[in-house]
Amino acid sequence: MAPKRRRADQSLPATAPAHPLRTPKRQPVVVFAHGAGAPSSSDWMVHWKEMVQDALDAVEVVTFDYPYMSGGKRRAPPKAEKLIDHHLGVVKDAAAKYQGHPLILMGKSMGSRVSCMVASSDDIDVSAVVCLGYPLKGVNGAVRDETLLQLKVPTMFVQGSKDGLCPLDRLESTRKKMTCKNELHVIDGGDHSFKIGKKYLESRGLNQHDAEMEAVKAISQFVQNSFSEICT
Known about the structure:
Order of helices and strands: HEHEHEHEHEHEHH
Helix content: 25-40%
Strand content: 5-15%
Mean pLDDT: 88
Number of helices: 8
CATH superfamily: Alpha/Beta hydrolase fold, catalytic domain
Oligomer: single chain
């Protein structure tokens, strides 16, 4: 089998990278924050962590629990602003551990909102932010776009088309007002956690796994493009 592997390797162009991000100091470190109702150990978080780790070839995808969620006790989450300091501490530790590597902040729902707040800090250099199910609507139905309008780094939204916490028309209006580069990937039929109903899948000929992989592929492309712009 060894000769076959050598021949296959020799058929590739000498300059072709094994992975688009696998070059010195280009592998990102991702700090991934959980949502309000489930910790970093939840099946959803673990699943997306693994997909992103593979797609971005990250040196590490760092997950953590906010203090109100630690110790196995699920208490009501405080206001997002009260979570910034803890989140920022985790980000600074990751940046110090992987100095020179691009820093990506990613979050699920509330975690994406706090990630955007942290990204605006003057203490860190963030390459991009990825929001998975951004909670644009507050409890009272008001649009919470102040944090997004303050962002200066490239930002990507991955949203389910049936996400009641982020109507796509309202998000589109907000994106037009944002001053940073921003992109949107819509998971057709997905709810706030990107779950697509069985009947919807069947009626549209869709597949849950394929829909998620398309989203991860879009995230990878967005990150690559963001790095390219930084380098130029």
